[in-house]
């Protein structure tokens, strides 16, 4: 195993993050690095609202739910912890972009994030509202190499299903 080499990957449980998680495991194996899957979380309603009305038992419950979500994502992706790689899962309170770039600060680190596919209009609206994606934040602020993993084709198929598109019809059109 490489001294100090880590592959840090943002995990939310979404299909995009699971795709990034699979890629991160491969990178960690290839590099002999430690895999650090990270689920960042914030209190429901945001930090500002929590500071106005703090409730420590509720905060513990949110943190427990975040830990369960990370465990569920690892179970969905690999049936538990992936084999053949050392894994150090972390659940961290804070916005995902700053949490990930704060953790991925070593010279041998690799930060893996899902790249997501957003249309031009949706992306422009997010930027106007001060949002922006976790991937964009990481690319702009990381102090290590960032690998942005595009979504798998399966995600497009699932989006089509949600919109009520018949995939057999699409497949027959593609075959023509």
TrEMBL record:
Entry-linked Pfam families: Usp
CDD domains: USP-like (cd00293)
Record-annotated UspA domain positions: 6-150
Signal peptide: none
Gene3D superfamilies per record: HUPs
Protein name stated in the entry: Universal stress protein
Source organism of the structure: Kitasatospora purpeofusca
């Amino acid at each position: 195993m490489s001294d100090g080499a880590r592959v840090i990957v943002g995990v939310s449980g979404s299909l995009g993050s699971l795709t990034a998680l699979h890629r991160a495991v491969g990178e960690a194996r290839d590099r002999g690095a430690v895999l650090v899957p990270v689920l960042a979380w914030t209190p429901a309603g945001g930090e500002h609202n929590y500071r106005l009305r703090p409730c420590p038992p509720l905060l513990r419950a949110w943190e427990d739910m975040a830990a369960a979500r990370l465990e569920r994502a690892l179970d969905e992706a690999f049936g538990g912890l992936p084999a053949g790689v050392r894994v150090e899962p972390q659940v961290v309170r804070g916005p995902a972009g700053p949490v990930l770039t704060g953790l991925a600060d070593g010279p041998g680190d690799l930060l893996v994030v899902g790249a997501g596919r957003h249309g031009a209009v949706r992306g422009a609206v997010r930027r106007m509202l001060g949002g922006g994606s976790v991937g964009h934040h990481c690319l702009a602020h990381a102090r290590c190499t960032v690998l942005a993993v595009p979504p798998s084709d399966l995600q497009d198929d699932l989006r089509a299903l949600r919109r009520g598109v018949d995939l057999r019809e699409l497949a027959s059109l593609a075959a023509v």
